[in-house]
């Protein structure tokens, strides 16, 4: 039995080290996962950027469409056909958009979008309470101003400018609040 002293080491054969550019595949098999993770991260970042760009484009197109359709003048009804305290429902600015015309107690006319600012449910006028109501989540709006006074809606109803020419009432423009 021979005992080796630590100072007496057997020389190791010299191995020629290959540089990265000389290797057929520069990553070891145990590091292969890192390549897949990097690739996945790159695709995730690119997909997120594409979704962000698409969303921004859709929002921009929505603003362009609204700005083009909200300024059309439209005849609504004769003023004498809506009694004081009465209501008239109509479509404005497009045939798909509901709106509400109110003949207030002080003789003024007020018009608002018929969509709740919370989740776009239909809004109607309840004459017994003299309030604009959204039945979906019990939202309540002031008929004088369109401001939200109860329930989850945080914003006022969009106001529609009304003009009168003779007996005829016209919706002129919708103003988001």
Observed structural traits:
177 residues, alpha+beta, Rieske Iron-sulfur Protein, 2 domains, 6-stranded antiparallel sheet, 4-stranded antiparallel sheet, 1 helix, 10 strands, rod-shaped
The counted number of beta strands is: 10
Binned strand content: 25-35%
Low-confidence stretches: none
Question: How many discrete domains?
Answer: 2
- State the fourth-level CATH superfamily of the largest domain: Rieske [2Fe-2S] iron-sulphur domain
Order of strands in the sheet with the most strands? 1-10-9-4-3-2
Distance between the termini: 97 Å
Which structural class is indicated by helix and strand composition? alpha+beta
Nearest-integer average pLDDT: 83
Characterize the overall form.
rod-shaped
Radius of gyration: 35 Å
Main sheet: strands, sense, barrel:
6 strands, antiparallel
Q: What is the level-2 CATH architecture name of the largest domain?
A: 3-layer Sandwich
What is the helix/strand order?
A: HEEEEEEEEEE
Helix content: 10-25%
Q: What is the level 1 CATH name of the largest domain? A: Mainly Beta
> Looking at CATH, which topology of the largest domain would you report?
Rieske Iron-sulfur Protein
- Total number of helices: 1
Sum this structure up briefly.
This protein is of the alpha+beta class and 177 residues long. Helices cover 21% and strands 28% of the residues. It has two domains: 46 residues; 102 residues, Rieske [2Fe-2S] iron-sulphur domain (Rieske Iron-sulfur Protein, 3-layer Sandwich), CATH 2.102.10.10.
